[in-house]
Design brief:
heterotrimer, A mainly alpha (221), B alpha/beta (201), C mainly alpha (250), A: 221 residues, mainly alpha, 87% helix, C: 250 residues, 9 helices, 78% helix, 0% strand
Chain lengths: 221, 201, 250
């Protein structure tokens, strides 16, 4: 447990020292979301309808931005080797890194989403569901993304390849996440979607660190 | 204590070495020598359990390191080409965080003392980015001094060190070996230490 | 090595013994492909009756359905080889997975393409966001990801292992993706046309479908084996036994 906390603290400290990276992903999210009304037109009814999808797709893309830097700096300066050789299981340390990644990229999206939702004229109930869906969904994105980040570590054209590998795997998160908000708006209730999203998260918490660890070991061989 | 039998290493399509045996016991150190590209780093990474050998087996205290995993990691310290030093963090933070990962947290005075020993007094709170290459390596040496590990595996530890730091490191290794430790290192310099053996690959 | 015992059992797991075996098998699989394909095509074009509602255009399902089956099946087989490779550390497994991937991707592509051709007269649109079509599209992306990852890694062993993990992650995800897309599809009632409500099939059509599926199956094995042979030659080019081969000497 101490090792996890140490890793999280270290990664957060590093994120504080290079704030620009975190902020870039955040502003990317804001800008992408704000571009859609410009491209589609300012009809409130239409915007309200497409808001969940747009916010979620933007969240997927914003999470992708930070992913290629999840393990790459540690790989470049040898920290990853030391993590593999640490007396704590690598799976735990990797989980710590994923948590830190979520705190720096996922959590800000959750907090920011309602503000952007207002641009699309979502009511307060829908905004609440959006936040809950993102709160469950963004850790899922970090977990799945970590597998891709580990697989493409030190690989030619890693960044683009990463999105090719990870985005198809994000489809269920997108469907249930955006679906929750839509279901709420159409009066069906978001419970089913949110529970499925939570089930996916539970599955990912179980499998993703394992797959990421295996991929990291391969990358270091 | 550390024994390896019949090690071979294949990189791409090239076989770097094969049928390599070695044994290093407490109070001994091994100097791995060879030309550039002979496979020194590969050998050290195999011994450190970072990559599996194509063939052969490595034993630590008579148990294969594959099965020891974390227990082996606790007894072993590996320093590779890259220092595992974070540029954005200060030497003090680097040292204490590395110690936490190693499962042996350092208190502040011990950390400061270790840094001072390697001439980093007054630079504890300066981001490593602003230090010279030699000073960066000194942060690593401080880690070597505080980490309790029996087996040291050091890949080119003398790179970028000035004369004074080279002496410090040699002293550190000598101390470690005298206290019953084991050290395996690669270096282009000759090492004037007792109980050393040379392995040419 | 600890898996000495296993090597006796899996004699053909070594590329050296698999290479000639595959060479002998390939013509047989091509032969079987022809045996199944010719009557299959005959049923497709002549024997199967014209559909009352769909006209002649429906005949494309004799290509479409087997291709869709194969695209899913090959992914599972590929993941199985990948898992085997990770578990037993056999070199051949990775080569098999790598050899199967392009065939699987082609099958997925063919099923999408023929789906579009079928969809145009049926639904009046080239593309409908039907659950199966969408899942097939994502499956195609997964294949492309696998191929791209393997192509981007220079070290063959690392490429195999990284690809294996991706394939396993993918195979866990395929049912989840399929389920989620289906859920999404039922929620959005817009695309209510579904491929599932196929009328009861005539016996001739069933035979045609079966023969075509077998033909696709045999074809897939034949090309995958051919590809594996090429991969073996490429990777083992430095070994003595490859240099001794007649085709290499010539």
């Amino acid at each position: 447990m101490n090792a996890i906390l140490a890793i999280i603290r270290r990664d957060l400290l590093l994120a504080m020292r290079r704030k620009s990276e975190v902020l870039t992903a955040l502003f990317f999210f804001i800008i992408v979301v704000s571009l859609f009304p410009l491209g589609i037109g300012p009809e409130t009814a239409l915007l309200r309808k497409i808001a969940p999808g747009i916010l979620w797709v933007a969240a997927l893309l914003a999470t992708m931005l930070g992913l290629s830097r999840l393990f790459a700096p540690d790989h470049a300066d040898g920290t990853l080797e030391q993590m593999v050789l640490a007396p704590s299981p690598l799976g735990l340390l990797v989980t710590g890194k994923i948590i830190a990644h979520w705190i720096t990229t996922g959590l800000p999206l959750v907090l920011l989403a309602p503000v952007l939702g207002i641009q699309f004229d979502l009511d307060s109930g829908a905004l609440g569901v959006l936040m809950i869906a993102l709160l469950i969904g963004t850790p899922l994105l970090s977990l799945i993304g970590a597998i891709g980040a580990a697989l493409t570590l030190g690989v030619r054209g890693g960044g683009v390849l990463l999105s090719l590998l990870v985005l198809p795997l994000y489809v269920p998160a997108l469907i249930f996440g955006a679906g929750a908000v839509e279901a709420h708006i159409s009066g069906l209730g978001a419970g089913g979607h949110l529970s499925l999203l939570a089930a996916l998260l539970a599955l990912a918490v179980f499998f993703a660190p394992w797959a990421t660890t295996a991929a990291l070991r391969i990358a270091l061989e | 204590m550390l024994t390896a039998t019949g090690l071979s290493c294949v990189r791409g399509e090239r076989c770097l070495f094969s049928g390599l045996d070695l044994a290093v016991g407490p109070g001994e150190w091994l100097h791995v020598q060879g030309e550039n590209g002979a496979g020194k780093t590969s050998l050290l990474r195999i011994l450190a359990s970072l990559s599996p050998p194509a063939e052969g087996e490595i034993h630590w205290k008579n148990a294969p390191i594959r099965t020891l995993a974390e227990d082996y990691h606790r007894d072993m310290l590996f320093l590779g080409h890259h220092g595992a030093v974070k540029e954005e963090l200060t030497p003090f933070e680097n040292l204490t965080l590395a110690a936490k990962l190693d499962g042996a947290p350092l208190d502040e005075t011990a950390a400061l003392k270790a840094l001072a020993r390697f001439g980093l007094r007054g630079r504890e709170d300066l981001a490593v980015r602003f230090l010279s290459a030699g000073q960066k390596r000194r942060v690593l040496l401080a880690r070597l001094a505080v980490r309790q590990a029996t087996l040291w595996i050091l890949d080119e530890p003398f790179t970028a060190l000035d004369v004074k730091a080279v002496d410090m490191l040699s002293g550190l290794i000598e101390e470690h070996v005298k206290a019953g430790g084991i050290c395996i290192l690669t270096s282009h310099q000759s090492m004037p230490l007792p109980n050393g053996r040379v392995l040419k690959i | 090595m600890s898996n000495n015992k296993i090597i006796h059992w899996f004699k053909y797991a070594s590329p050296q013994s698999f290479y000639p075996l595959a060479g002998k098998l390939i013509p047989w699989f091509w032969g079987l492909t022809a045996v199944f394909l010719i009557p299959g095509l005959w049923i497709t074009f002549f024997a199967a009756p014209t559909d009352a509602q769909q006209g002649e255009g429906y005949r494309i399902i004799f290509i479409h359905v087997p291709a869709a089956w194969m695209s899913m099946f090959i992914y599972i087989v590929m993941a199985a080889w990948a898992g085997l490779g990770l578990a037993l550390n056999t070199r051949l497994s990775g080569m098999m997975a790598q050899g199967l991937a392009p065939t699987g991707a082609i099958m997925a592509f063919v099923s999408l393409w023929t789906g579009a051709f079928w969809g145009k007269p049926m639904w009046g649109a080239w593309w409908v966001w039907d659950a199966r079509l969408t899942s097939a599209l994502i499956l195609f992306f997964l294949y492309i990801g696998f191929i791209a990852l393997q192509a981007a890694i220079d070290d063959a062993r690392r490429a195999d292992k990284a690809g294996a993990i991706l394939a396993l992650v993918g195979v866990v995800n395929v049912p989840i993706i399929y389920f989620s897309v289906k859920w999404w599809n039922t929620l959005h009632q817009g695309a209510s046309v579904s491929l599932t409500k196929a009328p009861t099939m005539a016996a001739t059509m069933l035979w045609g479908m079966l023969l075509m599926a077998l033909a696709f199956w045999m074809y897939s094995i034949a090309v995958a084996l051919t590809r594996v042979r090429a991969i073996i030659l490429e990777r083992e080019a430095h070994t003595e036994w490859v240099k001794e081969l007649d085709e290499v000497k010539a």
